[in-house]
Amino acid sequence: ATSMMSNSPSIKEQWSIHLVIVNLLSKINQFEAEFDLKPLSQRNDQSIEKLTKWAIKNGAILNGVEIHQFENYAYGMKATKDIAVGDKLVTVPRALMMTEENIPSSPLWKLHSQDMMLRNMPNVALAIFILVESLRKDKKSFWHSYLTTLPVTYSTPVYFDVADLEALKGSPAFEAALKLNRNIARQYAYFKKLFQLSNDPASVILKDTFTYEYYRWAVSTLMSRQNTVPSSDNPSENVSALIPLWDMFNHRSGRLSTDFVKASNVCVCYADGEYAADDQVYIFYGVRTNADFLVHNGFVYPDNEHDAVKIRLGVSRSDPLYSTRYRLLQTLSLPALAEFYITPGPFPIDGKLLAFVRIFNMDQKTLNDWTQMEEKLCLNLTLLDGTLDPALETKCWEFLQVRINLLIKQYPAPSENVENLSKFQQLAHTQIQLELDILKNALEYVKQHLDIMLKP
Fold first, then answer.
1. Residue 9 CA to chain centroid, in angstroms?
2. Distance between CA 340 and CA 343 in Å, rounded?
3. What is the DSSP annotation of 147-181?
4. pTM score of the predicted model
5. 250: domain CATH number?
6. Each residue's pLDDT tens digit, 70-114
7. Could you give the number of structural domains in the chain?
8. pLDDT tens for residues 38-48?
9. Nearest-angstrom CA–CA distance, 412 and 172
10. What is the dihedral of CA 239, 242, 246, 252, to 10 degrees?
């Protein structure tokens, strides 16, 4: 017998855990609201002007662009003149960036050197570093002008209430959002206790000011705005960085146009297209699915050519043919439990997914035949026309049809009145419609293949 399940908790169990966490956090937020702590940023034209002056004073260069508030009230970068492809737009020296490499010279260093989580999880350390620099009272942070222009709130799933998150049910983003919420709650609880029991400089700063509200803000800041730059100590390794000015660009599909110039120790952003004066200037954030954008950045991009829907498949260890299947999967560098992607466009089923499904559905004789073949011949399993036995091939495509149908049935019925939904529920609705479009396109593709194979 074969299985498509992993040993991780079911979605139903994860949802039950989430509801318990929400209940606890509700009580914590009520208690912490009495601290009367103010938002850590005030994003407005005055603070943006101070950010620009601070950045330029410290070596940043803006060429033909400026930060501007557009009609939808979101800040972005506006062209101040006509821009050609490849024009250098923004240059930001390393000295302006916030990275884990700044921690040794900060109040966080002592705790960082003692605490395992901070040492082993650089992004968690960077989130705490953001709070230390935002809340320190001994002196104004070097990054004060940057930190005070960050968004006051975000649309990442740690800001979703129960109904908002429930609107994502069926989507692979739902499980990712549940996991994110669990991790942030667990980290918050860990640090809340740590700061109360410690007397190092960072704990003194955060003992009476560290709240769940502040922590989810810091984590969302990092998730939605970080880039990577080469490490100062080891240029072959990258570190996460917050890059002032660069992170004011909004996203659109295109090509990567940001580079780190090691010789001059600066991050340079180039124009990825032509822009007329007063146009909003965009950059490409990288190859990500909309589920990734939603969970980590808090938006979805409908024209995302790199969008995909995740499908998880696995061979059960209780399968009598597990070892033979596993050996053949290894020949193609495929694991026994894997996540594949169904993509939009004319060829939604890629070679790796096809190979996995074929191996998953083989009987003992077919498996033995393939495991004895040369490695390069096994690559035929990844081809659309893999010259397999017609009966097996039909079985594989029928299997895909069933799996895709099951994925589609997991989604809730579409909302009748989308305009009445909350902002976050509308985001979830858009995400789900985009995923359903991908799955329905893939289902049609599979049906067409089956029709051809089953023709008399």
1. 21
2. 10
3. HTTS-SS--SGGG--HHHHHTTTTSHHHHHHHHHH
4. 0.92
5. 3.90.1410.10
6. 987 689 999 999 999 999 999 999 999 999 999 999 999 999 999
7. 2
8. 888 889 999 99
9. 13
10. 80
